[in-house]
Amino acid sequence: RPGRRRRVSSIKDYLPQDPVRWWNYIFVAIPFLCFVGSFILPERPLHDLGAGFMTDEHFARRYLLNATNATAPPATEAVFFEYTIVSRFTPGITIFANIAFVMFCLKQLLHMATAQIDEFPEYRFVKDKFQSREEGQNWNYDFVIVTSIKDEGHKLVDDLQRKNSMRNIVSALENADLETEQYKSRKFDKVFIKIRASRERLEEEADRLNMKFRLDERNVKQRLLDGQPDPLNPDEYDVYPRKNGWTYKGFQMETAITDTEDQCPYAYYEYIYGEYRSNPELQSLYQKYPRTSSMFRSVDRVKLIMSILKCDPNENGAGLVLEKLLKAEIILAAFPLHDRSELQACQSKWLVYWSWPWDQPFVKIKDYFGEKIGLYFVFLGHYTEQAGVAAIIGVIVWLPAGL
Length: 403
Prior knowledge:
Layout: H1 22-40, H2 56-64, H3 90-118, E1 143-148, H4 159-163, H5 166-175, E2 179-184, E3 190-196, H6 199-209, E4 212-214, H7 217-226, E5 228-229, E6 237-239, E7 244-248, E8 251-254, E9 273-275, H8 298-310, H9 322-327, E10 331-336, H10 340-350, H11 362-369, H12 371-402
Antiparallel strand pairs: 1-3, 1-10, 2-3, 4-9, 5-6, 7-8
């Protein structure tokens, strides 16, 4: 501001004020000093542990000043002076420096990843009526299509471009009961079309696709235990109760579901998936996720929106073939958007500095990124675990030989 003197910055302004962050500098200094020391300190040759070097001073004291043995060694004979004791630890220092440097890089990558989400500023938009926990749709825009802004004199050269102009694309999305919102880029050369779908529209598409969702364990267990009586005949059952000790026409029934062979570690009502049906009496069977207040995860919404985009307009779809539009450069990009709350929940359990490969939050990874990505990290964790066992055995076998 005018009239205010600017304070001269000092080195203290660039040093961390929090004492905990001083460990970052120490963690950097140790591997750096070890790495530099590995170049300064001479390294002992592996093929000759007694090898060394001889200076002119030692050569004169050993051969020229010794009256009894004044003969110099032959030219072909190598004369060595043994290294100091410090040089024997040079290979170990180099290994430690490499390990420490890799650990530091890993720590910094984790810090960068968490900073991108935790320190990202919150948008202060006015919250509309769409995002509501009471309505069971606690989410917002999930997909975006990017188009370019054409000049006023630009002419559409073929039928595909005329049919899929930006106005027609937005009209097709709205006819498919998708909500849109458009934003221009900073350079005013692109338009970002944000897309979202209501809970009713997602349920309609899930019913059309017979999409499978995870069932609520408590409701499934209770319904199986109670059975389903015949509405026309109360003494009969459409589905018999799956439990022991209930009476049917004077007989003691034993119909509980049991794993007689002890082959599955899970109960019969755990991790059950079923096709979605829009019947009101079946809605309580589907598992509800607290963050979205519905049965739709972030990955489910993206899958259903992409299905609506590709679906024929006669089946209440948009009829947009994204691959063809991208190849013809009618649209520049099409990609899903991150859900901040779901991503933070996954990140807080996943991006930690120390964790065993088998302790990754595979369920949260699967629920956010999809089943294929979740299966990949399950395999990667198993592979790392087995590779660690092989590495430990290799160290035990080769360490005595190296020493």
